[in-house]
Amino acid sequence: MSSVFDDLVGQEHIIEILQSAADASRQGAQTQEMTHAWLFTGPPGSGRSSAALAFAQALICPNDGCGTCSDCNAAKTGGHPDVEVIRTEGLSIKVEEIRELVIRVAWAPSMGGWRVVVMEDADRLTESAANALLKAIEEPGTRTVWLLCAPTLHDVLPTIRSRCRHLQLRTPSIEAVTQVLIYRDGISPDMAQLTAKVSQGHIGRARYLAKNETARSNRKVIMKLPMQLGSLASTLQAALTLVDIATEEAKATSESRDETEIEKLQEAYGKGATGRGMATGGSKAVKELEKEQKSRATRMVRDSIDVALLDLATFYRDVMMVQTGNNEYIINTDMREQIESCAAKNPANSTILKISAIMAARANLTHNVALLVTCESLMCQLTKQ
Ligand SMILES: [Zn+2]
């Protein structure tokens, strides 16, 4: 029989816990026995939000979490009245949003089971938003279950995490990701192996690369940047290329989504019918949506640069492998020649500094720094021997 947990790759240790909690709640366990707040942590790509969503489905499904019934499907596509998925489009979740959410989910579940809130980026809660959420989590006897997701425990306020049952996801093995790509997504074994390897267990990234030729060629351009560093002009050009590619990738994914959202909103306000709705509040709502979309676009460019920087980090990681005589552990096997040449030309301690510079740039990106300047400064550091 199929199950909502089938899609979670390499997470057997937590599936068992979630399964038995869902079973217990279905067999009529008392409200107070159910854990009302859960915290899913794990590295990017480990599938923490997929795990939380699967659990939400298991809690509301009338067929033991089948993954195929109309309730399961509605929960997955955002159409179930008792399952709310909070995805942050901006850089933070504000207190007003949480207050609104708490009021919205305080109603009894429409189907008599649970009301489930999946919060994909609990690490983006502002302090006051986290405090507002805390009050809701502490409310005893409610039928609301909170499923929070964050990269690590430390990304969530101690007061929140002390009230949550914590589940730590693992990075799935490259082998496990390869198998899923081949057998579930129908990707050829060669492609599955390569993309699983270069994505280092990040299944979403591996699948995206395997299915998207533009993404693969963009990645190639990024991976060649270290070889182009030299003069100041070429170093600054490398930074520009990085930002340009990230901007293009973000644009490609958001443009069609932005348009559909605006159309839907206009329809909701009665555009094309009487037009009166648009006059009374419709255009204000469209403006607000556009503002939101802009903030999302900024975040998507940042995320896209972050992915590129992680790719670059694997290049220098490979260089270090060669410098320490571990040639067989290279990730980017398609670039062996360039990696070996870079390893021969540079001292090993400079490679370590380069990897730290990349990690520092990634950390800076999470603050509101100027993207191009950050990338330029990074490229200058990568140029040093
Ligand atoms: Zn179901």
Kindly describe this structure.
The chain has 385 residues and is α/β, with parallel strands linked by helices. The protein contains 15 helices and 5 strands. The chain has helices at 12-26, 48-60, 70-77, 95-104, 127-138, 158-161, 174-183, 189-198, 203-211, 213-228, 232-268, 276-323, 336-345, 348-365, 371-383, and strands spanning 37-41, 83-86, 115-119, 144-150, 165-168. A 5-stranded parallel sheet has the order 2-3-4-1-5, with helices on one face. The longest helix is centred in the last third of the chain and has 48 residues, at 276-323. The N and C termini lie far apart (57 Å). The mean pLDDT is 88. The structure holds zinc ion. Residues 61, 63, 66-67, 69, 71-72 line the site of zinc ion.
Layout of strands and helices, then pairs:
Elements: H1 12-26, E1 37-41, H2 48-60, H3 70-77, E2 83-86, H4 95-104, E3 115-119, H5 127-138, E4 144-150, H6 158-161, E5 165-168, H7 174-183, H8 189-198, H9 203-211, H10 213-228, H11 232-268, H12 276-323, H13 336-345, H14 348-365, H15 371-383
Parallel strand pairs: 1-4, 1-5, 2-3, 3-4
The structure holds zinc ion (ZN).
